[in-house]
């Protein structure tokens, strides 16, 4: 099941809701103040591990959020 991210329009708190695709467009209430939540666009990472356990970013031509390295082993 996908994890959707929301921002409360009342208290500005960010929260997440785990729900099936069939409920993706339903509104979500803030767990803190019960105000309405606005669904956010979420970024995600996709990596592949080789037989030695090293991670390699897949797709997007880069690594983590704005990183231009092609391998996490080159990051500090």
Folded structure, characterized:
- The chain is an all-beta fold and 76 residues long.
- The protein has no helices and 6 strands.
- It has 2 domains: 37 residues; 31 residues, no CATH class.
- A 4-stranded antiparallel β-sheet has the order 2-1-4-3, with no helix packed on it.
- The protein is elongated.
Summarize the SSE layout with pairings.
Elements (H helix, E strand, L loop, with lengths): L2 E6 L5 E5 L9 E2 L6 E4 L7 E3 L5 E3 L19
Antiparallel strand pairs: 1-2, 1-4, 3-4, 5-6
The computed structural class is mainly beta
The number of strands is: 6
| Shape field | elongated
User: How many individual helices?
Assistant: 0
Gap between N and C termini: 33 Å
Give the strand content: 25-35%
| Chain-averaged pLDDT | 82
Largest sheet: 4 strands, antiparallel
Radius of gyration: 17 Å
In quaternary terms, these chains amount to single chain
**What is the N-to-C succession of helices and strands?**
EEEEEE
Low-confidence stretches: none
Give the strand order, joined by hyphens, for the main sheet: 2-1-4-3
Helix content: under 10%
Count structural domains.
Answer: 2
Please summarize what this structure is.
It contains no helices and 6 strands.
Keyword list:
two-stranded antiparallel sheet, 76 residues, four-stranded antiparallel beta sheet, mainly beta, single chain
């Amino acid at each position: 099941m996908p994890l959707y991210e929301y921002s409360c329009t009342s208290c500005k708190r960010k929260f997440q809701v785990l729900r099936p695709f069939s409920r993706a467009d339903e509104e979500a209430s803030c767990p803190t103040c019960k105000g309405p939540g606005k669904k956010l666009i979420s970024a995600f990472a996709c990596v592949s591990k080789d037989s030695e356990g090293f991670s390699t970013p897949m797709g997007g031509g880069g690594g983590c959020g704005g990183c231009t390295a092609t391998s996490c082993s080159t990051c500090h």
